[in-house]
């Protein structure tokens, strides 16, 4: 995972009218930790406003989703094996950690599953 | 005027059963199809009897089995008891066992087969321990002796969070990746329709009160055969949980179902029936 792959997130999410509709009450910034790589993702009214990669000195976020690079890579495979196929499954097996205020995530759990699932690589047609 | 050719009634018939249950009058929704060996089906936590729609609609099974499913009180079209608004709903092992025995008696079932999923897969272990003589066989779907919560269950019932959204959102990954889209979302719709606090109240049994780890080795499958079917992708009751059960219960027969998750009968009906048919055939012999 790198900046290039996550740069597609606004296009993938904002182009999905039903997904952005379901997130229309959502305004939040969350941190996505892919191993040592950190991304701040800003969402406004269900649309991804920005994705910023960095070594943040004092990042502000409401919640953080942290997993190893290997765990995310497996999650984003076209057909992930059991235990890597869903965010809650990754939490169950302690591969994914949710820090901070879980409220926006839990109230919009399907939204966030779909948002991160949109990065799943598709098999070639 | 003839009916449009695409309209048909299913062979499933639903009725309301009035009975005293757990010391209170109840109105329970019961549906059934078929004739033969009674097969009483128990739905998962926070859902209802629609999960068994495919078993009921299978002509081969219903020609040999009387397939019955009821909505537990508080679930589906069954009402909660009077006074529901004054206390928290919590399912206990004792109440759940009473419920299955009382409904079975009320329907006049003679040594039925009981098939339950998740909490239903747990309660069949209790039935195997406490009342083996009352059942011809028991089938545990997604059956484990215990489950630790892996998220804060309070999210399932709080006034500032939409229960239907959060319950269906949390369980969505429990469905296997190969499930047909229509059945996947039908299954999640049932979760979206649960009453406030009902899923969480069921999980009190699943995660606290129904822990049967200390006793499962005492199950005597010579008195009542026990079959276990568990989906590969289930992370609530994992294949390892079921294998551990089978290791500890002499004579229990366990099968892991490829590609499936926590709601096999509802999420992938055809796939599930291919695993269920040999079990039912063995029970018939």
Provide a descriptive summary of the structure in words.
The complex is a heterodimer of chains A (125) and B (285). Chain A has helices spanning 3-6, 9-14, 17-22, 69-75, 87-92, 103-107, 109-117, and strands at residues 27-34, 37-44, 47-53, 63-67, 96-100. With 125 residues, chain A is an alpha+beta fold. Chain A is globular. Chain A starts with a helix and ends in an 8-residue tail after the last helix. The radius of gyration of chain B is 18 Å and the shape is globular. In chain B, strand 1 and strand 2 (24-33) form a beta hairpin. In chain B, helix 5 (163-171) crosses helix 6 (181-192). Chain B has helices at 53-57, 59-62, 93-106, 119-130, 163-171, 181-192, 198-209, 239-248, 264-267, 269-284, and strands at residues 13-21, 24-33, 37-42, 65-70, 113-117, 137-141, 226-231, 253-257. The model of chain B has no long low-confidence stretch (mean pLDDT 97). In chain B, 51% of the residues are buried. Chain B is an alpha/beta fold and 285 residues long. Classes of the chains: A alpha+beta (125), B alpha/beta (285). Chains A and B meet through helix 5 and helix 7 of A and helix 5 of B.
């Amino acid at each position: 995972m790198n900046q290039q792959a996550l740069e597609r997130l606004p296009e993938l999410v904002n182009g999905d009218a039903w997904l952005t509709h379901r997130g229309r009450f959502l305004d939040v910034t969350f941190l996505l930790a892919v191993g040592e790589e950190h991304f701040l993702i800003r969402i406004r009214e269900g649309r991804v406003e920005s994705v910023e990669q960095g070594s943040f000195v004092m990042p502000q976020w409401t919640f953080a989703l942290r997993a190893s690079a290997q765990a995310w890579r497996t999650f984003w495979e076209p057909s992930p094996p059991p235990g890597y196929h869903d965010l809650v499954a990754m939490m169950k097996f302690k591969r994914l950690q949710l820090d901070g205020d879980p409220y926006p995530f839990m109230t919009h759990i399907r939204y966030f599953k779909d948002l991160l699932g949109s990065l799943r690589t598709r098999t070639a047609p | 005027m003839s009916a449009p050719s695409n309209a048909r009634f299913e062979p499933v018939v639903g009725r309301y059963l009035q009975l005293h249950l757990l010391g209170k009058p109840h109105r329970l929704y019961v549906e059934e199809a078929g004739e033969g060996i009674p097969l009483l089906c128990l739905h998962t936590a926070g859902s209802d009897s629609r999960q068994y729609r495919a078993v009921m609609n299978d002509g081969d099974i219903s020609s040999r089995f009387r397939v019955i499913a009821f909505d537990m009180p508080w679930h589906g079209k069954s009402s909660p008891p009077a006074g529901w608004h004054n206390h928290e709903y919590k399912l206990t092992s004792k109440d759940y066992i009473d419920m299955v025995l009382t409904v079975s008696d009320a329907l006049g079932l003679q040594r039925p087969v009981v098939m339950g999923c998740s909490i239903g897969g747990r309660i069949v272990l209790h039935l195997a321990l406490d009342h083996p003589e009352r059942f011809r066989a028991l089938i545990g779907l997604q059956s484990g002796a215990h489950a630790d919560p892996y998220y804060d269950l309070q999210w399932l019932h709080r006034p500032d969070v939409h229960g239907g959204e959060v319950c269906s959102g949390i369980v969505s990954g429990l469905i296997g990746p190969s499930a047909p889209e229509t059945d996947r979302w039908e299954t999640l719709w049932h979760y979206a329709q649960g009453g406030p606090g009902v899923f969480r109240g069921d999980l009190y049994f699943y995660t606290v009160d129904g822990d049967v780890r200390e006793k499962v080795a005492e199950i005597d499958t010579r008195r009542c055969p026990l079959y276990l079917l568990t989906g590969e992708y289930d992370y609530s009751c994992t294949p390892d949980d079921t294998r551990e059960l089978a290791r500890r219960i002499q004579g229990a027969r366990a099968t892991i179902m490829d590609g499936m998750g926590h709601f096999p009968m509802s999420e992938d009906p055809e796939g599930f029936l291919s695993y269920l048919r040999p079990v039912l055939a063995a029970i018939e012999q």
